[in-house]
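Quick one:
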Amino acid sequence: MTLNGSPWMSRGVVLQAFVRPLAALQADSSQSGVLNARNNFGSTELAAIHNYQADTIRFQIGQPALDPASPLYDSGYLAQVVSAIKTARQAGFVVMIMMQDEAISGETSPHPLPTAETQSDWDLLAAQFGTDRGVVFELYNEPNLPETTANWQLWLNGGTVSGQTTASIGMQSLITHLRSNGAQNVFVLDGLQLAGTLNGLPTVTDPLNRLVYAVHPYQHGSADESQWDQDFGIPSTKVPVWADEWSAPTGLTLGLGSLTSYQVAVDLVNYLRSHSISLCTGAFDVPRFVVQDIPGWTLTNYDNIAQNMQIDGSGTLVYNDFLANYSRALTLSDGLSN
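Output:
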Protein backbone atom coordinates (compact mmCIF):
# COMPACT_ATOMS: atom_id res chain seq x y z
CA MET A 1 0.00 0.00 0.00
CA THR A 2 0.98 3.64 -0.43
CA LEU A 3 -0.04 6.82 1.36
CA ASN A 4 0.41 10.16 -0.42
CA GLY A 5 2.60 8.41 -2.96
CA SER A 6 4.99 6.74 -0.49
CA PRO A 7 5.12 3.11 0.69
CA TRP A 8 2.97 2.70 3.77
CA MET A 9 2.20 0.12 6.42
CA SER A 10 -0.87 1.16 8.37
CA ARG A 11 -0.93 1.17 12.18
CA GLY A 12 -4.55 0.85 13.20
CA VAL A 13 -7.08 0.46 16.00
CA VAL A 14 -10.74 -0.55 16.00
CA LEU A 15 -13.59 1.52 17.42
CA GLN A 16 -16.86 -0.22 18.33
CA ALA A 17 -18.70 2.91 19.43
CA PHE A 18 -20.72 3.31 16.23
CA VAL A 19 -21.66 -0.30 15.58
CA ARG A 20 -25.27 0.54 16.51
CA PRO A 21 -27.33 3.75 16.62
CA LEU A 22 -27.14 5.74 19.82
CA ALA A 23 -30.80 5.11 20.68
CA ALA A 24 -30.31 1.35 20.32
CA LEU A 25 -27.33 1.41 22.68
CA GLN A 26 -29.25 3.47 25.23
CA ALA A 27 -32.20 1.08 25.11
CA ASP A 28 -30.21 -2.12 25.66
CA SER A 29 -28.55 -2.60 29.07
CA SER A 30 -26.34 -5.37 27.66
CA GLN A 31 -24.63 -2.74 25.50
CA SER A 32 -23.39 -0.59 28.38
CA GLY A 33 -19.75 -1.08 27.38
CA VAL A 34 -20.35 0.07 23.81
CA LEU A 35 -22.52 2.94 25.07
CA ASN A 36 -19.61 4.00 27.28
CA ALA A 37 -17.40 3.85 24.19
CA ARG A 38 -19.86 6.06 22.34
CA ASN A 39 -20.02 8.58 25.16
CA ASN A 40 -16.23 8.85 25.23
CA PHE A 41 -15.63 9.26 21.51
CA GLY A 42 -14.10 12.65 20.85
CA SER A 43 -10.93 14.69 20.91
CA THR A 44 -9.50 13.13 24.08
CA GLU A 45 -9.85 9.60 22.74
CA LEU A 46 -8.49 10.58 19.34
CA ALA A 47 -5.47 12.11 21.07
CA ALA A 48 -4.98 8.84 22.97
CA ILE A 49 -5.06 6.96 19.65
CA HIS A 50 -2.47 9.34 18.23
CA ASN A 51 -0.35 8.70 21.34
CA TYR A 52 -0.69 5.00 20.65
CA GLN A 53 1.20 5.74 17.42
CA ALA A 54 -1.79 4.69 15.30
CA ASP A 55 -2.57 6.42 12.02
CA THR A 56 -5.69 4.47 11.06
CA ILE A 57 -9.09 3.97 12.71
CA ARG A 58 -11.35 1.10 11.69
CA PHE A 59 -14.97 1.94 12.43
CA GLN A 60 -17.36 -0.98 12.95
CA ILE A 61 -20.59 -0.01 11.20
CA GLY A 62 -23.85 -1.94 11.60
CA GLN A 63 -25.43 -2.92 8.29
CA PRO A 64 -29.05 -3.34 9.46
CA ALA A 65 -29.36 0.11 11.03
CA LEU A 66 -28.67 1.73 7.63
CA ASP A 67 -31.33 -0.26 5.78
CA PRO A 68 -34.90 1.13 5.77
CA ALA A 69 -36.22 -2.41 5.20
CA SER A 70 -34.66 -3.68 8.43
CA PRO A 71 -36.50 -3.58 11.77
CA LEU A 72 -33.25 -2.22 13.21
CA TYR A 73 -33.24 0.81 10.90
CA ASP A 74 -32.60 4.18 12.50
CA SER A 75 -33.13 7.27 10.33
CA GLY A 76 -30.49 9.20 12.29
CA TYR A 77 -27.78 6.54 12.15
CA LEU A 78 -26.18 7.55 8.85
CA ALA A 79 -25.65 11.10 10.10
CA GLN A 80 -24.06 9.75 13.31
CA VAL A 81 -21.66 7.57 11.33
CA VAL A 82 -20.77 10.31 8.84
CA SER A 83 -20.07 12.81 11.61
CA ALA A 84 -17.76 10.41 13.46
CA ILE A 85 -15.80 9.53 10.32
CA LYS A 86 -15.40 13.19 9.37
CA THR A 87 -14.18 13.94 12.90
CA ALA A 88 -11.53 11.22 12.63
CA ARG A 89 -10.46 12.43 9.18
CA GLN A 90 -10.16 16.00 10.45
CA ALA A 91 -7.94 14.66 13.25
CA GLY A 92 -5.57 13.29 10.60
CA PHE A 93 -6.47 9.60 10.55
CA VAL A 94 -6.97 7.28 7.64
CA VAL A 95 -10.39 5.75 8.21
CA MET A 96 -11.54 2.24 7.38
CA ILE A 97 -15.30 1.74 7.26
CA MET A 98 -16.13 -1.88 8.02
CA MET A 99 -19.60 -3.20 7.16
CA GLN A 100 -20.81 -5.55 9.89
CA ASP A 101 -23.88 -7.78 9.86
CA GLU A 102 -23.45 -9.79 13.04
CA ALA A 103 -24.83 -10.02 16.56
CA ILE A 104 -22.73 -7.04 17.66
CA SER A 105 -24.68 -4.88 15.19
CA GLY A 106 -27.98 -6.18 16.55
CA GLU A 107 -28.54 -8.69 13.76
CA THR A 108 -30.42 -11.85 14.78
CA SER A 109 -30.11 -13.65 11.42
CA PRO A 110 -26.73 -12.64 9.96
CA HIS A 111 -25.96 -13.61 6.42
CA PRO A 112 -22.56 -15.22 5.76
CA LEU A 113 -21.86 -13.08 2.66
CA PRO A 114 -22.81 -9.65 1.26
CA THR A 115 -26.38 -9.17 0.07
CA ALA A 116 -28.38 -6.50 -1.75
CA GLU A 117 -28.74 -4.81 1.66
CA THR A 118 -24.96 -4.54 1.85
CA GLN A 119 -24.84 -2.90 -1.56
CA SER A 120 -27.54 -0.34 -0.78
CA ASP A 121 -25.76 0.57 2.46
CA TRP A 122 -22.50 1.08 0.59
CA ASP A 123 -24.31 3.34 -1.86
CA LEU A 124 -25.16 5.60 1.08
CA LEU A 125 -21.60 5.66 2.36
CA ALA A 126 -20.02 5.99 -1.08
CA ALA A 127 -22.15 9.08 -1.69
CA GLN A 128 -20.45 10.62 1.35
CA PHE A 129 -16.89 9.28 1.05
CA GLY A 130 -16.47 7.73 -2.39
CA THR A 131 -14.00 10.38 -3.56
CA ASP A 132 -12.02 10.60 -0.30
CA ARG A 133 -8.96 8.41 -0.86
CA GLY A 134 -8.22 8.61 2.86
CA VAL A 135 -11.30 6.47 3.55
CA VAL A 136 -11.05 2.73 2.95
CA PHE A 137 -14.09 0.50 2.42
CA GLU A 138 -14.01 -2.96 4.05
CA LEU A 139 -16.87 -4.41 2.07
CA TYR A 140 -18.08 -7.14 4.45
CA ASN A 141 -16.71 -8.24 7.78
CA GLU A 142 -15.78 -11.90 8.35
CA PRO A 143 -17.58 -13.97 5.71
CA ASN A 144 -18.83 -16.92 7.71
CA LEU A 145 -18.24 -19.91 5.42
CA PRO A 146 -15.61 -22.68 5.54
CA GLU A 147 -12.72 -22.48 3.09
CA THR A 148 -13.74 -24.61 0.10
CA THR A 149 -13.54 -24.07 -3.65
CA ALA A 150 -17.33 -23.88 -3.85
CA ASN A 151 -17.53 -21.30 -1.07
CA TRP A 152 -14.83 -19.15 -2.67
CA GLN A 153 -16.98 -19.09 -5.81
CA LEU A 154 -19.98 -17.98 -3.74
CA TRP A 155 -17.76 -15.33 -2.13
CA LEU A 156 -16.68 -14.12 -5.56
CA ASN A 157 -19.77 -14.43 -7.73
CA GLY A 158 -22.69 -14.70 -5.31
CA GLY A 159 -25.53 -17.18 -5.20
CA THR A 160 -27.65 -18.84 -2.57
CA VAL A 161 -25.79 -20.30 0.38
CA SER A 162 -27.11 -23.59 1.72
CA GLY A 163 -29.63 -22.95 4.49
CA GLN A 164 -30.18 -19.31 3.44
CA THR A 165 -33.11 -17.78 1.58
CA THR A 166 -31.46 -14.47 0.74
CA ALA A 167 -28.96 -14.63 -2.10
CA SER A 168 -25.45 -13.24 -1.87
CA ILE A 169 -24.40 -10.71 -4.50
CA GLY A 170 -20.70 -11.68 -4.45
CA MET A 171 -17.63 -9.51 -3.94
CA GLN A 172 -17.05 -9.08 -7.67
CA SER A 173 -20.54 -7.72 -8.27
CA LEU A 174 -20.23 -5.37 -5.30
CA ILE A 175 -16.90 -4.02 -6.54
CA THR A 176 -18.19 -3.56 -10.10
CA HIS A 177 -21.27 -1.75 -8.82
CA LEU A 178 -19.35 0.64 -6.57
CA ARG A 179 -16.76 1.44 -9.23
CA SER A 180 -19.48 2.11 -11.80
CA ASN A 181 -20.95 4.65 -9.37
CA GLY A 182 -17.62 6.44 -9.05
CA ALA A 183 -16.12 5.12 -5.79
CA GLN A 184 -12.36 5.78 -5.81
CA ASN A 185 -11.51 4.15 -2.49
CA VAL A 186 -9.31 1.19 -1.66
CA PHE A 187 -11.57 -1.81 -1.05
CA VAL A 188 -10.69 -4.39 1.62
CA LEU A 189 -11.98 -7.93 1.10
CA ASP A 190 -12.10 -10.32 4.08
CA GLY A 191 -11.18 -13.97 3.62
CA LEU A 192 -13.36 -16.96 4.43
CA GLN A 193 -13.69 -18.66 7.85
CA LEU A 194 -14.42 -15.34 9.58
CA ALA A 195 -11.44 -13.77 7.78
CA GLY A 196 -9.29 -16.60 9.07
CA THR A 197 -7.79 -17.59 5.73
CA LEU A 198 -6.97 -16.43 2.22
CA ASN A 199 -5.98 -19.91 1.11
CA GLY A 200 -7.66 -20.64 -2.23
CA LEU A 201 -8.45 -16.97 -2.90
CA PRO A 202 -9.85 -16.57 -6.44
CA THR A 203 -8.90 -13.76 -8.81
CA VAL A 204 -10.90 -10.57 -8.33
CA THR A 205 -11.03 -7.84 -10.98
CA ASP A 206 -10.91 -4.14 -10.14
CA PRO A 207 -10.49 -1.50 -12.86
CA LEU A 208 -8.62 0.74 -10.41
CA ASN A 209 -6.47 -2.07 -8.94
CA ARG A 210 -7.13 -0.86 -5.40
CA LEU A 211 -7.85 -4.09 -3.56
CA VAL A 212 -6.42 -5.33 -0.27
CA TYR A 213 -7.29 -8.67 1.35
CA ALA A 214 -7.96 -8.96 5.08
CA VAL A 215 -7.26 -11.64 7.67
CA HIS A 216 -8.05 -11.73 11.38
CA PRO A 217 -5.30 -14.02 12.73
CA TYR A 218 -6.65 -14.64 16.22
CA GLN A 219 -5.03 -17.41 18.27
CA HIS A 220 -8.29 -19.00 19.55
CA GLY A 221 -6.46 -20.29 22.62
CA SER A 222 -3.78 -22.09 20.61
CA ALA A 223 -0.03 -21.63 20.22
CA ASP A 224 -0.05 -23.46 16.88
CA GLU A 225 1.66 -21.40 14.17
CA SER A 226 1.66 -24.04 11.45
CA GLN A 227 -1.16 -22.52 9.35
CA TRP A 228 0.21 -19.00 9.05
CA ASP A 229 2.05 -19.61 5.79
CA GLN A 230 -0.97 -21.17 4.14
CA ASP A 231 -3.59 -18.77 5.53
CA PHE A 232 -1.89 -15.44 4.93
CA GLY A 233 1.91 -15.68 4.53
CA ILE A 234 1.97 -17.23 1.06
CA PRO A 235 -1.03 -15.16 -0.13
CA SER A 236 0.84 -11.99 0.94
CA THR A 237 3.51 -12.74 -1.69
CA LYS A 238 0.81 -12.47 -4.38
CA VAL A 239 -1.65 -9.82 -3.17
CA PRO A 240 -1.64 -7.02 -0.56
CA VAL A 241 -2.73 -8.42 2.81
CA TRP A 242 -3.91 -6.49 5.86
CA ALA A 243 -4.33 -8.07 9.31
CA ASP A 244 -7.03 -5.55 10.07
CA GLU A 245 -8.34 -7.03 13.33
CA TRP A 246 -6.28 -8.83 15.95
CA SER A 247 -5.57 -8.78 19.66
CA ALA A 248 -4.50 -11.44 22.11
CA PRO A 249 -6.15 -11.10 25.53
CA THR A 250 -5.82 -13.93 27.99
CA GLY A 251 -8.91 -15.60 29.38
CA LEU A 252 -10.92 -15.14 26.18
CA THR A 253 -11.41 -17.95 23.67
CA LEU A 254 -10.81 -15.57 20.79
CA GLY A 255 -7.40 -14.61 22.17
CA LEU A 256 -4.86 -16.59 24.15
CA GLY A 257 -7.48 -18.41 26.22
CA SER A 258 -5.75 -20.28 29.05
CA LEU A 259 -2.24 -20.06 27.58
CA THR A 260 0.29 -18.92 30.17
CA SER A 261 2.81 -17.71 27.61
CA TYR A 262 2.31 -14.95 25.07
CA GLN A 263 5.18 -16.08 22.83
CA VAL A 264 2.71 -16.86 20.04
CA ALA A 265 1.51 -13.23 20.12
CA VAL A 266 5.08 -11.96 19.82
CA ASP A 267 5.71 -14.41 17.00
CA LEU A 268 2.58 -13.26 15.20
CA VAL A 269 3.45 -9.55 15.16
CA ASN A 270 6.97 -10.41 14.01
CA TYR A 271 5.60 -12.70 11.30
CA LEU A 272 3.31 -9.95 10.02
CA ARG A 273 6.21 -7.50 9.97
CA SER A 274 8.46 -9.88 8.07
CA HIS A 275 5.75 -10.34 5.44
CA SER A 276 4.95 -6.60 5.15
CA ILE A 277 1.43 -7.17 6.46
CA SER A 278 -0.04 -4.12 8.20
CA LEU A 279 -1.75 -4.57 11.56
CA CYS A 280 -4.96 -3.10 12.91
CA THR A 281 -5.28 -4.20 16.50
CA GLY A 282 -8.51 -4.70 18.44
CA ALA A 283 -11.03 -2.38 20.06
CA PHE A 284 -9.50 0.73 21.60
CA ASP A 285 -12.76 1.88 23.17
CA VAL A 286 -13.88 -1.18 25.17
CA PRO A 287 -11.74 -2.86 27.88
CA ARG A 288 -9.59 -6.00 27.63
CA PHE A 289 -8.28 -5.93 24.09
CA VAL A 290 -5.97 -2.89 23.88
CA VAL A 291 -6.83 -0.80 26.91
CA GLN A 292 -7.94 -1.46 30.47
CA ASP A 293 -10.25 1.53 30.99
CA ILE A 294 -12.30 4.10 29.10
CA PRO A 295 -11.68 6.93 29.79
CA GLY A 296 -8.06 6.58 30.79
CA TRP A 297 -7.01 4.31 27.94
CA THR A 298 -4.37 2.55 30.06
CA LEU A 299 -2.77 -0.11 27.89
CA THR A 300 -3.17 -3.81 28.58
CA ASN A 301 0.02 -5.83 29.11
CA TYR A 302 1.22 -9.32 30.02
CA ASP A 303 2.65 -8.46 33.45
CA ASN A 304 0.55 -11.10 35.24
CA ILE A 305 0.29 -13.87 32.68
CA ALA A 306 2.54 -16.23 34.69
CA GLN A 307 -0.10 -16.15 37.43
CA ASN A 308 -2.81 -16.91 34.84
CA MET A 309 -4.90 -14.05 36.18
CA GLN A 310 -6.70 -13.75 32.84
CA ILE A 311 -6.58 -9.97 32.73
CA ASP A 312 -3.67 -9.53 30.35
CA GLY A 313 -3.64 -8.29 26.76
CA SER A 314 -1.59 -7.23 23.78
CA GLY A 315 -2.03 -3.45 24.00
CA THR A 316 1.54 -2.73 25.11
CA LEU A 317 3.02 -5.29 22.71
CA VAL A 318 1.33 -3.68 19.71
CA TYR A 319 2.18 -0.20 20.96
CA ASN A 320 5.88 -1.08 20.81
CA ASP A 321 5.38 -2.46 17.30
CA PHE A 322 3.71 0.79 16.22
CA LEU A 323 6.25 2.94 18.08
CA ALA A 324 9.04 1.29 16.07
CA ASN A 325 6.93 1.62 12.90
CA TYR A 326 7.57 -2.08 12.24
CA SER A 327 11.32 -1.44 12.08
CA ARG A 328 12.48 -4.15 14.50
CA ALA A 329 11.62 -7.60 15.73
CA LEU A 330 9.81 -7.61 19.07
CA THR A 331 10.66 -9.73 22.11
CA LEU A 332 8.73 -10.87 25.17
CA SER A 333 9.83 -7.76 27.04
CA ASP A 334 7.84 -5.61 24.61
CA GLY A 335 4.62 -7.03 26.06
CA LEU A 336 5.37 -5.83 29.60
CA SER A 337 4.50 -2.49 31.13
CA ASN A 338 7.98 -2.01 32.53
